[in-house]
Amino acid sequence: LIALIAVPFIIGPPPSLQTWLWGAAAGLSGAAGLSFLYQGLAEGRAVIVSPTAALTGAALPVLFGVLTGERPDPITWSGVAIALPAILLLSFERSDKRGAVIKSLRTGLIAGVGFSGFFILLSRTGEQSGLWPLVAARSASVPALLLATIIRRKPLILNKGSRRATLFAGTLDMLANIFYLLAFRSGMLITAVVVTAMYPAPTVILQRIVFKEKLSSLRIAGLLLALTGIALIGLG
């Protein structure tokens, strides 16, 4: 957060109050989505929560984009239509657990709504605002998450083994937000969100390379669909 705050001063003036409010609202929405996603994962229901959150987080911004006048060409629409089911296939895992399915779906849907709110609200900020919307988002989300941690009486200090990994993950998350911001400003919300929602693809590839995990036929199909969808979106 400290490093991010320093960057906008170098590349542009402070934003308007409206931009700051859009960014702060986006940060709160994203924090809520992340909280519910981690809650679902912690409860051992990743098989349901993860794909539900990813698909919802992509589908709602696509609908919003259409309602606000975005009109991708047929090639781009073909890529979107192929990419959305790819999200489910990439996230799918077989499981013998059948209990609490409705609760898991609800958790995943709420997480997805939170993520879609982040994408949509951030898209309402102007191009001239630079990276300031992300500063506003972090300035709102970090205190909110700290407050939630205190209320739930969870430890605020990470154990030594988790600090480096957490810092690295937070840095990657911030870089991902920056690239998303640049992506929708150079194109359309619909295409930026759908490509962003392909995040399970590199995770699957890394699992194969680093942990030598065997890829299921469904995940291989998901990878092929994801690559095809992204290629069509790029051509559109």
Protein architecture, described:
The structure is a single chain. The protein is mainly α and 236 residues long. It has one domain. It is 78% helix and 0% strand. The longest helix has 27 residues, at 160-186. The two termini are 35 Å apart. The model has no long low-confidence stretch (mean pLDDT 81).
| Count of discrete structural domains | 1
SS elements, strand count: 0
Roughly what fraction of the amino acids lie in strands? under 5%
Rounded to the nearest angstrom, the distance between the terminal CA atoms is 35 Å
Count of alpha and pi helical runs: 10
Summarize the main sheet.
none
**How helical, in percent, are the residues?**
over 70%
Notable traits:
236 residues, mainly alpha, 78% helix, globular
Strand and helix map with partners:
Layout: H1 2-11, H2 17-42, H3 46-67, H4 74-91, H5 101-123, H6 132-151, H7 160-186, H8 189-196, H9 200-210, H10 217-235
Helix pairs in contact: 2-3, 2-5, 2-6, 3-4, 3-5, 3-8, 4-8, 4-10, 7-8
Quick recap of the structure?
The chain is an all-alpha fold and 236 residues long.
